[in-house]
Design a protein that fits this description.
Layout: H1 14-31, E1 33-37, H2 38-56, H3 60-70, H4 79-86, H5 95-110, E2 119-127, E3 134-140
Antiparallel strand pairs: 1-3, 2-3
């Protein structure tokens, strides 16, 4: 029986599964649309929608919760890099910092009037080479 077993195993142990979902979620936030297999997309949907719910309420606590869930690194900038960032050059940022900024400045406000269902899964006709797994596209909605 599968009582209280809510998540799919994705043929990975728990640490590998958690790392896979974190990396997929970072890529989804960064690109807003990724191509993956259907079971991974269904698990990712649950993970990503909880982060959007946190991002709708832009507080320090919600930012820290997102950083903990995604294991984001926050690189410390030197004074010279900080001056360059103020002038508009964000090349000193690592991708984790830009992911956090995009989540709270673009994606959270986009869905502030929506109660859930922030992602869409579109199945593709092609299959993955090697194991013939169904491919799909998972993306954030425009509204």
């Amino acid at each position: 029986m599968r009582h209280r077993n809510h998540s799919g195993r994705l043929s990975r142990d728990s640490a590998h599964r958690e790392a896979t979902l974190k990396n997929l979620c970072k890529n989804l936030i960064q690109h807003e649309r990724i191509e993956t297999t259907v079971p991974k997309a269904k698990e990712l949907r649950r993970y990503a929608e909880k982060l959007i719910t946190l991002a709708k309420n832009d507080t320090l606590h919600s930012r820290r919760q997102v950083k903990a869930k995604l294991s984001l690194r926050h690189n410390v900038l030197t004074t010279k890099e900080a001056r360059e960032v103020k002038s508009g050059d964000t090349s000193a940022y690592n991708t984790d910092r830009t992911i956090l900024k995009k989540l709270f400045s673009e994606l959270g406000p986009r869905f502030v009037n929506r109660q859930g269902g922030y992602t869409r899964i579109v199945r593709l006709a092609k299959v993955q080479a090697g194991d013939a797994a169904e491919k799909c596209i998972i993306e954030y909605l425009a509204d």
